[in-house]
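User: Small ask, check this?
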Amino acid sequence: MNWVTKMFSSSIGQKFIMALTGLFLCSFLVIHMVGNLQLFKADDGLAFNTYAVFMTTFPVIKFVSYVLYASIIFHAIKGLMLVSKNNKARPVKYAVQNGAANSHWTSRSMGILGTLVLVFIVIHMKNFWFEYKFGHEVGYTSYFTNIATGETGSRAMEAEYKQHNKIEETMVSSPDGQQYKIVVVKDLYKEVATEFKEWWLVALYVLCMFAVAFHLYHGFQSAFQTLGINHSKYNGLIKFIGIWVFSVLIPAGFAAMPIFFFFK
């Protein structure tokens, strides 16, 4: 076990863990992005609210979420420590230095970009995760779906309404014999829609998505190099995924959400 301790306390070992946690966080971004696409469905938030309940109650997801939180904290703290260590190792800069000739500016700005991403995560968790789990502003909404036609309507429950579970489903019959599925669920969708009516918050999210894009532009490809997965056969694919998926598609998708609600 001594070699394990030495491995993960060394600079190489720490960079190895940074790469693993970084790729794990990238995988989470994909899942989070797919789930949040439910926000665009024209169902008053039923699909998104159902997804939010699943993500916060399913035992396996809950366990993985704790690993996610630990990964975020470790990746952020260790990243800042490595940047600080590298800066201390070069206390005196060359009189004439052309950094652009040796590396992309994103690789030289990972500390700043990572800090901006961390600030964004804290704000995001406070506005939505904390409010959803512990706040008092997120209320409940009742959705009623006609089984025969598939049409869905909704109405907000009274502010003081509470129920034991985040979601409860029942089947009822109307006087004319129509069957309805009633879903009463904690309404995170409405909280999202309300928060993103604030122009400054929308602007902050969009700007932070630029920081995420540039952070991943270098970080995704760098993680594979650190893990030793560096070969001409698949370097092109890694670069393509790093740029077009993690530096363009995913940040653009997340940025589109606040913009959508602001102009909705």
Summary: The chain is about 65% helix and 10% strand.
